[in-house]
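Marked as duplicate of an earlier ticket. Keeping the data here for the record.
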Amino acid sequence: IADARGVAAALALGAHAVQVGTGFLATAESGAPAVHKEALHSPEARTTVLTRLYSGRPARGIPNRFVREMAAYEGEVPPYPLQSLLMQPLRTAAAAQDRRDLAALWAGQAAPLTRPALTAGEYLARLTGSASPSGTRGTPGASGTPGTSGSSGTPD
């Protein structure tokens, strides 16, 4: 879920709330490195994959050189938290050096729907603009309107 249509659809199907992650990664306030934000708007973001390579837990991300070249070894990855500890130096260095080919580029399947240069408030306003089942504008939780829940650094 990355836009008001997705929120409205979930609410129409009976959900009381939605969880949004990737859309908030692209916002100005996000702590995601610039290389990660750029990747969210790249052609590669149209195809996300589940991988355990960076943390030892399954997480969805944008495939890059590291993920493609190491895919054959996915079955040999130690479990979380050991793999996460082993990969921390690579994740840190890749982010510091803007190495999109090596960085952990967490992203949900809705990554192509993210928009660059929005603040978190602007993004939240877009999410809630037509989110209520009646189609009226409202804020999450107001008048019993189900709301949204966002995160700023976890995979979807």
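See parent ticket for discussion. The longest strand covers residues 17-20.
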